[in-house]
Structure formats: structure tokens, C-alpha cells
């Protein structure tokens, strides 16, 4: 008898919960209807004895790991990888974020979503948490994002990024430093959109019409607390409760954001964390991206409320934001996830780079050796990301979990000899070893190539929209060049202020 919707992954070496983190366990994995049914040895023989034939996938010389969860990502600027060198966060905003750009075409939205998803899949990510800004908002653009994810086959949790306070109001000194003629250009990640109530549209068209069996799910994306009024935060909390949704937001990415809290929220002791606690947003459903400039008492509030933190090492370093207090968060018991953030500032959707920097940032944060970080980095990239979206069936290889799996080539020089699979994944691997990627038991990447779509045709679609993107980017880059004296002045004033912590090494 041939059993359909069943796949047997044979002769692999898997990293299992509670198993050997260095050598893994030799095993077969039986997948049924997209979920892991059984893990054991000799499963093929057992099936044969019962006269059952199933599709098989040979995992000889392959390390099987849970698919990574990119817990903080924005698909809106995937075409901007490699466009910048070291750039302070406040300058980067003016170069990279959608409110700076004229309206994009539907074709560009589709192409940029696909190329981002392809890069994520190729580096072993099976889930992306996409906090996407679509500005000016057009329902067709949202549909293009969702369709692209469904077509390529990655698991996606999509949140529209929104705000109701203008960017210029939320960055210290911008209003007073810049001449008034430039104020319309001083936007951030999301700007108030007066033409359409995005949240109401999203609720009506998507939240109220759940699609069974879709790998695309939803979250809510208030851009950052200082960009949202109390009413908008409370509306977010209520919607999250009604529909059981995770919430993604940004907190204290840069020193400027911490300073803004000190200046604008004296009634909350200058703390956005205390403000969010009072407004009912903290809790296990909330993902706080970055958290670089958290203070110790705020870390304790996050631990007490079970709030998740998503570390983004690549962008935090490139944008001169600083080193987040990872050890303090770990010691307090805060659940950590890992993200690769925007392509314009992380450049790579590569969880191996993110894991390595996560561990190395901890190493330079304390002169004394601390607990091993490789396992913690891998945990943040897998189970931590799953926890952040309330999914205990992702981020681990166990019966009942979804079969979101990555097969790594153990013949790659990175693993020869195999001293510790966990450490070599984190410290040695660059992404070269990712061979096969499965989402819901379906092969999406096979031997490094996209299996769900014509990869060459996808690249052609991307290249067709690149000239227009480059043309617009050049105009924006020239504008930012003229703004630099005032950007520098605001930057200098931010760095001269005391916010009660220092997260950037200054050599003193
Ligand atoms: Zn972000």
C-alpha cells in the first residue's frame, strides 16, 4: 500500500530537544500531513514489514535542524541590500524607509517580497515575521505580499506597520534643528495614513475571513510606542485579544529613541516600557524588536510580564545603535528571539550571521567568561522565535511539531571534523551548508535551488523592477546629502545627552 501525504526522511543526524547538542542523534523522521509523526531508527524497515511504501528523502551525511524563524524582518526594502555603508539609524531612516519613496508598483511589491523570501529560505529560514510598511497604503499591495508568500511556500506571519504620530515629532531635536522647508521629508518607518483606516480594512478583509490551511498568518505592527497614541496602542491590544494575534513593535533601537522616552514621557518615569505596561500591551504575545537601550528595571518588567525580545545584531551594529544587554535579559529570564531586520541595514537575511554576532556580542559585553552562547543563539533562532508567535509546534523537532526542517550538508568543510554541531552551526557555518529546506513537510529548497517556483523567472521579475527602484533611490540619496549638516547636528545633540546607560563602545 502506498501512503500519500507521507514522507520518510532517512538516515539523518538530527538535533533533538534534550539530545546531544554536539553530535545529534542518528534517526529517521516520518512526516504525515505536514507534521512530524515519528522519530526513530529503522523506520523504513518497519513500514516495509507492514507493506507500506512512502516517498523518501535521503538524509545521509545531513544534519537535520528545525527551520529558523526570522523573528524581525521587513520585506519592504529587500532591493536596497548593499546600498549603504555604516549609517546612523536616524540617517538610514531617511534613505531606506517607504514613506520617503513615491508609490511603488504592484510588480515591485511582489518581486521584492519574493526575493526576500528566497534569500530567507536559502539560509534555512522556514518562517518570517514580516512587519511590512506599505505607504501610501493600497489594498492591492497587501494582497501582492500575501500572494507572493503563498506562492513561494515560506511560512509567514505578516503585520502591517502603522503609526498615528508623524515621524518628525518622535526624534529628538529634528523639529528645532531642520529648516521648516525640510520638515515634510523627516519621516520614519510608518507615517499616519489619513486616506484609509488600515487596521479596519485589515480586520474586515483578513482577520474576519481566516483561510484554512494557509501558511500565511497575521500579527499587528504598531511601529513604535512613541509613534502611536495611547488610543492606537489600546486599539491594538484589543484587536490582539479578540483575534489571538502576536504584536510586533520596535523599542529603544537607538539612543535617540531612549532619549525621546526620557523627554516625552515624564509621567512614566521616562520609560516606554512602563508606558506600554500601563496601556496593556506587555505580555507573551508582544515582540519587542531591538531593546538595545533597555535599563535594568525595565528588563525586570519584561521578565515579570513574559514579554519577548527580538535581538537584531546585524542592523544594531551597522546603524551604530549599539550592543543590546543580552546577558542581562538572559539572566532575568526574558525569552529571546533573533531577527535579520531590514535588508538595507542588515544586508543579509542570514541567520548564521545573526547567531554568530548574537554570541560574540555577549562575549564582548563582559570581561569574565560566561555561560556558553552557541546553544542559546541557536535556541533564539528557533524555539525563541516560535515562542514569540505563540507556536509550540514550530522551532523544534518532535512528534506533533510541523515538519519545518533544514538539512545541512555535513560534507561541507565547515563540519569536517564534526566536533560540535551546535557550535559549528553558530561559529563556522556561513550558509553554504544549507542543502534542503522543508516547510510543512514540503520540499521548498532542494539542493540549494527553489523547488516551488521557477527560480530564474523569479530573478527576471526582480531585475525588471530594479531600474525604477534605483532611479528613486538616487533622488532620495541626493536629498539626504543636502540634509546632512542638520542630521549631524541632531545626532551630536543626541549623543551628548545622558539616558542612564551606554550601549556603544567609545573607548573610554
Ligand atoms: Zn524593524
Oligomer: single chain
What is the H level of CATH, i.e. the homologous superfamily of the largest domain? Metal-dependent hydrolases
What compounds sit in this structure?
Answer: zinc ion
What is the highest CATH level, the class of the largest domain? Answer: Alpha Beta
The major pleated sheet works out as:
9 strands, mixed
CATH topology of the largest domain: TIM Barrel
DSSP E strands, number? 18
Mean pLDDT: 96
Keywords: Hydrolase
GO molecular function, one term: hydrolase activity, acting on carbon-nitrogen (but not peptide) bonds
Pfam families: Amidohydro_1 (PF01979)
Organism: Rhodoplanes roseus
What does this structure look like?
With 508 residues, this protein is an alpha/beta fold. It has helices spanning 43-49, 89-96, 106-122, 139-152, 174-177, 198-207, 230-243, 255-264, 272-278, 296-305, 313-318, 326-332, 343-346, 351-363, 374-388, 421-427, 455-496, and strands at residues 2-14, 25-32, 35-40, 53-58, 62-66, 68-73, 125-132, 155-162, 216-218, 221-222, 247-251, 286-290, 308-311, 336-338, 405-409, 434-439, 442-446, 449-450. The strands form 3 sheets. Strands 1, 2, 3, 4, 5, 15, 16, 17 and 18 form a 9-stranded mixed beta sheet that branches. The protein is globular and about 80 Å long. The mean pLDDT is 96. The structure holds zinc ion. Zinc ion is lined by residues 72, 74, 250, 289, 341.
Amino acid at each position: 500500500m502506498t501512503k500519500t501525504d507521507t514522507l520518510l526522511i532517512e538516515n539523518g543526524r538530527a538535533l533533538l530537544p534534550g539530545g546531544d547538542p554536539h553530535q545529534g542523534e542518528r534517526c529517521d523522521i516520518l512526516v504525515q500531513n505536514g507534521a512530524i509523526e515519528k522519530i526513530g531508527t529503522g523506520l523504513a524497515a518497519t513500514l516495509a514489514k507492514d507493506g507500506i511504501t512512502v516517498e523518501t528523502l535521503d538524509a545521509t551525511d545531513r544534519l537535520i535542524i528545525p527551520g529558523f524563524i526570522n523573528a524581525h524582518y521587513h520585506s519592504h526594502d529587500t532591493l536596497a541590500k548593499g546600498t549603504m555603508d555604516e549609517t546612523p539609524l536616524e540617517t538610514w531612516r531617511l534613505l531606506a524607509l517607504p514613506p520617503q519613496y513615491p508609490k511603488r508598483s504592484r510588480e515591485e511589491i511582489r518581486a521584492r517580497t519574493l526575493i526576500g523570501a528566497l534569500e530567507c529560505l536559502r539560509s534555512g529560514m522556514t518562517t518570517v515575521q514580516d512587519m511590512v510598511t506599505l505607504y501610501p497604503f493600497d489594498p492591492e499591495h497587501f494582497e501582492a505580499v500575501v500572494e507572493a508568500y503563498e506562492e513561494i511556500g515560506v511560512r509567514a506571519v505578516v503585520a502591517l506597520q502603522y503609526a498615528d504620530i508623524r515621524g518628525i515629532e518622535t526624534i529628538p531635536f529634528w523639529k528645532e534643528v531642520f529648516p521648516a522647508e525640510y520638515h515634510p521629508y523627516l519621516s520614519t518607518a510608518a507615517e499616519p495614513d489619513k486616506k484609509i483606516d488600515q487596521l479596519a480594512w485589515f480586520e474586515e478583509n483578513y482577520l474576519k475571513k481566516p483561510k484554512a490551511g494557509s501558511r500565511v498568518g497575521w500579527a499587528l505592527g504598531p511601529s513604535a510606542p512613541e509613534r502611536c497614541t495611547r488610543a492606537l496602542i489600546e486599539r491594538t491590544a484589543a484587536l490582539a485579544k479578540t483575534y489571538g494575534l502576536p504584536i510586533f513593535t520596535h523599542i529603544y533601537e537607538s539612543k535617540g529613541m531612549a532619549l525621546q522616552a526620557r523627554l516625552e514621557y515624564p509621567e512614566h518615569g521616562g520609560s516606554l516600557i512602563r508606558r506600554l505596561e500601563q496601556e496593556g500591551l506587555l505580555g507573551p504575545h508582544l515582540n519587542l524588536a531591538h531593546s538595545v537601550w533597555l535599563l535594568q528595571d525595565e528588563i525586570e518588567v519584561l521578565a515579570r510580564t513574559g514579554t519577548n525580545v527580538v535581538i537584531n545584531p546585524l542592523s544594531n551594529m551597522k546603524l551604530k545603535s549599539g550592543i543590546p544587554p543580552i546577558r542581562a535579559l538572559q539572566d532575568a529570564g526574558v525569552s529571546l528571539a533573533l531577527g535579520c531586520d531590514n535588508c538595507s541595514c542588515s544586508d543579509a537575511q542570514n541567520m548564521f550571521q545573526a547567531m554568530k554576532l548574537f554570541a560574540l556580542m555577549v562575549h564582548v559585553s563582559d570581561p569574565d567568561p560566561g555561560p556558553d552562547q552557541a546553544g542559546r543563539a541557536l535556541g533564539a533562532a528557533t524555539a525563541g522565535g516560535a515562542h514569540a508567535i505563540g507556536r509550540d509546534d514550530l522551532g523544534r523537532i518532535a512528534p506533533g511539531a510541523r515538519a519545518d526542517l533544514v538539512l545541512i550538508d555535513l560534507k561541507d568543510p565547515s563540519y569536517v571534523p564534526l566536533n560540535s554541531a551546535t557550535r559549528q552551526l553558530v561559529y563556522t557555518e556561513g550558509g553554504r551548508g544549507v542543502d534542503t529546506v522543508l516547510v510543512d513537510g514540503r520540499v521548498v529548497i532542494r539542493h540549494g535551488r527553489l523547488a516551488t517556483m521557477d527560480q530564474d523567472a523569479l530573478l527576471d521579475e526582480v531585475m525588471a523592477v530594479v531600474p525604477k527602484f534605483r532611479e528613486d533611490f538616487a533622488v532620495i540619496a541626493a536629498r539626504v546629502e543636502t540634509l546632512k549638516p542638520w542630521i549631524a547636528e541632531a545626532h551630536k545633540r543626541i549623543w551628548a545627552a545622558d539616558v542612564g546607560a551606554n550601549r556603544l563602545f567609545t573607548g573610554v
